[in-house]
Amino acid sequence: PRPFRPVGGSMSVVEHVREMAAAGLHSNVRLLSGLLLTMSGNNPELFSPSQKYQLLVYHADSLFHDKEYRNAVSKYTMALQQKKALSKTSKVRPSTGNAASTPQSQCLPSEIEVKYKMAECYTMLKQDKDAIAILDGIPSRQRTPKINMMLANLYKKAGQERSSVTSYKEVLRQCPLALDAILGLLSLSVKGAEVASMTINIIQSIPNLDWLSVWIKAYAFVHTGDNTRAINTICSLEKKSLLRDNVDLLGSLADLYFRAGDNKNSILKFEQAQMLDPYLIKGMDVYGYLLAREGRLEDVENLGCRLFNISDQHAEPWVVSGCHSFYSKRYSRALYLGAKAIQLNSNSVQALLLKGAALRNMGRVQEAIIHFREAIRLAPCRLDCYEGLIECYLASNSIREAMVMANNVYKTLGANAQTLTLLATVCLEDPVTQEKAKTLLDKALTQRPDYIKAVVKKAELLSREQKYEDGIALLRNALANQSDCVLHRILGDFLVAVNEYQEAMDQYSIALSLDPNDQKSLEGLQKMEKEESPTDATQEEDVDDMEGSGEEGDLEGSDSEAAQWADQEQWFGMQ
């Protein structure tokens, strides 16, 4: 058979393949190129080296489109080998300069593009080292912005921070409005002023871009963990009429309120963002967690279903569904859903926290510790990651490790109500540091009198000291401007201690109306109803016996219950 060459002015078969590839007819390209490659294998003279290279690339592209990444990599590798042979032959036989050879070399698929596609395949196959190796092999001058961006992200993930910074800067040099590259630099502790200097020329030359320097400033605060200033700066941006109702800014605000322990404002901003964009996925894992923590399990279930309808290829729907399972005390299911989320996105902090919390509640503390440490590596400014790890240390009686970690957090994230309370929580575990815990909690409550976690811990301390009246005053004060299931329940416990039974029942009822799944409020209410029900002495005796046995049961279960409650409370980001 004679080689495939066009007759007269007609197109060659390889040009037909190229046209179909350009037209996006991937399944057609796959079939035809597969048949042509077999023909080429059976008769090597049929196609020229450059035609074989093209066929291999187009065939690999169609495999890539079908998500057959391993197969695509092998075909791309063969294509690059063919290109090497082609380069050698063209060096040996220099082009005579005839017009026919020029268009062919112009329309050959780019070798750099092939390497980029290979790197994409490797990342899909979770072979990041291979992806870095292939992109690293491209000389710096030949790297396109997307190659630099991919390299920067891969370096960052591998912990090669200096190389990552260099690559992000290269992206910005080529494309000064690459905002994700800006975020990448800020996340690697590059100063906001330095990043802003790289975009200053473009801000000055294009109208209506004056907000960009404020935007950079805001995210610089986000990445240094200065939540208050980040919130104020984003609010100032959001108030500008041109950027009002921007979903990304609202999502960032919601996340910042969450980090600052202001769950009510966080939920509010997530709801606002969701109303503006019903297909929003980013941040919905945190939103689902907050709803679950508030006992709104039906809302969590609905959110999970809605997110699965939008995309099951993102981590968020799996995390939301996992939160529902976790708060329904189905820990092994939560563990599975968390693992699935991590599989889809290994950078999902919320998935790591979910899986870590589930492992801890299942008694697999050492495995849980690994997950919390990875979450800390990914989000060093998020307090909830440290809280999860400290809970693990306390669960395994490693008070010294917990104390070291809490002190480190206190030093690195600064002395705010959250870090003070976290340190106090550890101090409460050690009889020697009870007074220190008291001082820390008082400081925290001076800064933020409504900070629920600090109130809960202070109440715990007062309960130990049997200062019930002080506890009641503290809780009433905290409940003046907010309603929280845990606070109402603890107030109920304190009222029982001072024999205010009727009001105690009211408090338990309010707690259950806020969270119908709150087991401890239910137990408190049931115990009080039992006390009220006896009608004669014999029954009374029976009830006393029941109560006695119940109380013993309570004492026996108190550690695990307290641990369980602490898990739920301390389980990532919370109030």
From TrEMBL:
Keyword Ribonucleoprotein: no
Subcellular location(s) of the protein: Cytoplasm, Cytoskeleton, Spindle; Nucleus
GO biological process, one term: protein ubiquitination
Record's compositionally biased regions (Acidic residues): 538-559
Annotated Basic and acidic residues bias: 523-533
Coiled-coil blocks: none
Subunit and partners: V-shaped homodimer. The mammalian APC/C is composed at least of 14 distinct subunits ANAPC1, ANAPC2, CDC27/APC3, ANAPC4, ANAPC5, CDC16/APC6, ANAPC7, CDC23/APC8, ANAPC10, ANAPC11, CDC26/APC12, ANAPC13, ANAPC15 and ANAPC16 that assemble into a complex of at least 19 chains with a combined molecular mass of around 1.2 MDa; APC/C interacts with FZR1 and FBXO5.
Family of the protein in this entry: Belongs to the APC7 family.
Protein name: Anaphase-promoting complex subunit 7
Source organism (scientific name): Atrichornis clamosus
Gene that encodes it: Anapc7
